Here is the input.
Amino acid sequence: MTAGASSRPVGSAFLAGYAVAYIGGFIGVAPLLQVLAPLHAALIDGQAKGPLLSQALFWGCMAAGAGNILGGALSDRTRSRHGRRRPWILVGAILTVGSYALLHQSSSRLGFILALVGFQLAFNILLAPLLALFADRVPENRRSVMSAVMGMGYPLAAMVGSVVMAWGPQDEVGRLAVLSAVVLTATLPFALLSREDPPPPDQMRPLLADVSLVSLLRPFATRDFALAWSYRFLVVTGFSLVAFYLLFYIADAIGFTRLFPGRTAEAGHSLLTAIAVVGVVAVSVVVALNGSRITRRKPLGVTGAALLTVAAAVMAATQDWNLVIAAFALYGLGQGCYGAVDIALMADVLPSAEDRGKDLGLINLAVTLPQAIAPLIALVLLERLGLDFRSLFLAAAACFGGATLAVASIRRVR
Here is the structure.
């Protein structure tokens, strides 16, 4: 066990339930941000759908960063006979489903922006304590396996969500109902049925103890924490540029409906995400099956970032659909390598046990801030410079290249 972790044995049932809750939670977010939000933005203002989506994503992701730190810090300091993480997982799941109604009801630019703010705040209150349980409960010798399984979370969620969006209910209410059912089915049984030991006495503190900007930013004084944070930040910035604008890239830059009359851009989106998930699953399965024998995480991190760099550069340089498909296959392998080590690598560089929730919330800023920064990059490239959607993939390639250098420089993780 890692220092400060629960003494309760970690069985297969807990690990399976945790994986289902994590992946199911992301099925509730990926298709909303990648498909439903763009479509809703186009419904509100078809002429300025790109800028509107970018503004909503920016403010939503700022709220996500606050929600992640808040959810993690609150769970660190919660005293409950039900544990400190599980109550907040329940609250976050219920609020997430409630936020879907806000999105559906929004009919103005401001309403749309506020709806995405509410969604991001709610989902990250769910995510922060869920991630803290990884550091609390998963022992060192099983982290590689669990990290590989969790690494499939977002890509698998993107694929499942894209398939549901393309081939399931075609009205917004039906689609949101499906997402709600998945989120609740995946998270509530785990939060209600799993058991959680109270934290050690030396980790219990009053709710407002040591709350300051200095304490919040203290982990960045640790070199490897800062490098790992930068690695994740750059990779997720690249991911966000690709994910948020992939539907518009397929429709406008590639001209999918012109190439394949009678098919929608959503169908092309579904195909590409499915191809990427094949690569993610292939890498993740290999790592999961050999997790106990994999003692070096950094080579996978470097390889993944390098593959992502090449794939994004190819997508930026071509309008050939067959090359896009090949690049996305490579992209999936890169995602798989990154995802297979991401959570374990982040847990390895945490500076302290008592602030795991808060510090993981800080690390998750490296996920939420890129989702705010990517739309700003898009606004500059699309609006200020007048470039097309392929320019966003070139920017993604630059981010992935920087991430390769950052992860290669980490010393504490081999």
Q: What stands out?
A: The CA atoms of residues 283 and 336 lie 5 Å apart. The radius of gyration is 20 Å.
